[in-house]
């Protein structure tokens, strides 16, 4: 009997393509720990960042998404604080 995988997909819009790329670059360095079994993939299309999570347990998925949103909040606040990137 194989274990089922639980997935979630997020789409995060940004005001500009450049801000989406900056957020992607900032958040890409935070890889999921191998021991948790959560896989996260991120891509950017225009001003939308697409994130796909896959986890063996709902609890692990929830923890991973919560952590992602904590990091995303910091990136968005930084972009807002320092203004439009050039």
Automatic annotation (TrEMBL):
InterPro entries in the record:
CTAG/Pcc1
**UniProt key word Nucleus:** yes
Keywords on record: Cytoplasm, Nucleus, tRNA processing
Record bears the keyword Flavoprotein: no
* GO BP annotations listed: tRNA processing; tRNA threonylcarbamoyladenosine metabolic process
Single GO cellular component term:
EKC/KEOPS complex
Compartment(s): Cytoplasm; Nucleus
Superkingdom of the source? Answer: Eukaryota
Q: What does this protein do?
A: Component of the EKC/KEOPS complex that is required for the formation of a threonylcarbamoyl group on adenosine at position 37 (t(6)A37) in tRNAs that read codons beginning with adenine. The complex is probably involved in the transfer of the threonylcarbamoyl moiety of threonylcarbamoyl-AMP (TC-AMP) to the N6 group of A37. LAGE3 functions as a dimerization module for the complex.
Which family is annotated?
A: Belongs to the CTAG/PCC1 family.
> Which PANTHER family is this protein grouped with?
EKC/KEOPS COMPLEX SUBUNIT PCC1 FAMILY MEMBER (PTHR31283), EKC_KEOPS COMPLEX SUBUNIT LAGE3 (PTHR31283:SF5)
Protein name per UniProt:
L antigen family member 3
Q: What is the protein's species of origin?
A: Lymnaea stagnalis (Great pond snail)
Query: Which classification does the entry list for the species?
Result: Eukaryota, Metazoa, Spiralia, Lophotrochozoa, Mollusca
């Amino acid at each position: 009997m194989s274990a089922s995988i639980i997935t979630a997909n997020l789409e995060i819009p940004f005001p500009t393509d450049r801000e989406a790329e900056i957020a992607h670059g900032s958040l890409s360095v935070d890889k999921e720990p191998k021991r948790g079994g959560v896989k996260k993939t991120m891509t950017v299309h225009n001003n939308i960042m697409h994130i796909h999570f896959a986890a063996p347990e709902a609890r692990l998925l929830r923890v991973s998404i919560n952590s992602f949103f904590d990091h995303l909040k910091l990136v968005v606040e930084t972009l807002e604080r320092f203004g439009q990137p050039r």
